[in-house]
Design goal:
mainly alpha, single chain, Arc Repressor Mutant, subunit A, 10 helices
Length: 241
């Protein structure tokens, strides 16, 4: 059965549903390799990031297995054993954060006090300490983004930023991170955070907006890069306090 085009407005769930149905009908047999993401995206009429999210969802469900440097293979699954994933898509979440937090960074450059900027530097120092200990520096990362949102003095924006950041805890985000987050990627992210703080400290709203937008665009790109050829050195995940 040929793949059917999906309307662009739909999210990864509809892509995963179609691929899951094809697997269950035997169109993709157990042990076979799925077509590359690029080919699936073309056949489905969607973006590669949307396909990436769908494949990660199927991996979380136990329907497929990602083999680094080889491809994505169909796994044998027990009927009814896996529940369908309904979490928010990580890549869509990052894009939403980019739109919101870029403007918040610009606002912070206009209004943050010296003590608040010092608080941002403390958050980066926490990230560095966590990374040095071999952990994913998510506590410091979370604190950094929340402190920028706090500078807006808007409880709705603070809630939105907090909830969007905390989507990192959902199973799709965690699985995606297990493939692509490494000590090297976190070192790059920490440097991007420093660029945001420097722009805020220099009272440059345009530079702060651009630095935050670039940071979150780079985060998106890191998660949509080619699958690693071999497992890279990972950093361990630790729950936020």
């Amino acid at each position: 059965m040929p793949l059917q085009a999906i309307a662009p407005r739909r999210l990864y769930r509809q892509i995963a549903d179609q691929l899951r149905a094809l697997i269950e009908r035997g169109e993709f047999a157990v042990g076979t390799r799925l077509p590359p993401e690029r080919d699936l995206a073309l056949q489905l009429g969607v973006s590669r990031p949307s396909v990436r999210e769908a494949l990660i969802a199927l991996e979380v469900e136990g329907r497929v297995e990602v083999r680094m440097g080889s491809g994505i293979y169909v796994r044998r699954s027990e009927p009814g054993a896996a529940r369908q994933v309904t979490a928010e898509g990580p890549l869509e979440t990052i894009r939403a954060r980019q739109l919101i937090e870029s403007e918040l960074a610009a606002h912070a450059a206009r209004h943050m006090k010296k003590a608040q900027i010092a608080g941002l530097r403390q958050a980066i120092a926490l990230m560095e300490d966590e990374a040095s200990a071999g952990h994913a520096p998510t506590r410091g990362d979370r604190l950094f983004h929340i402190r920028i949102a706090e500078a807006s003095e808007n409880s709705v924006l603070l809630r939105v930023v907090t909830e969007l950041f905390d989507e990192r805890r959902n199973p799709l985000f965690a699985q995606l991170g297990s493939h692509f987050e490494t000590a090297g990627s976190w070192a790059t992210a920490i440097a991007e955070h420093r660029a945001v703080v420097d722009a805020i400290a220099n009272r440059s709203p345009d530079a702060a907006r651009d630095a935050m937008a670039q940071h979150l665009a780079s985060s998106h790109d890191r998660f949509t890069a080619n699958w690693p050829a071999a497992p890279a050195r990972r950093v361990t995940q630790r729950k936020s306090a």
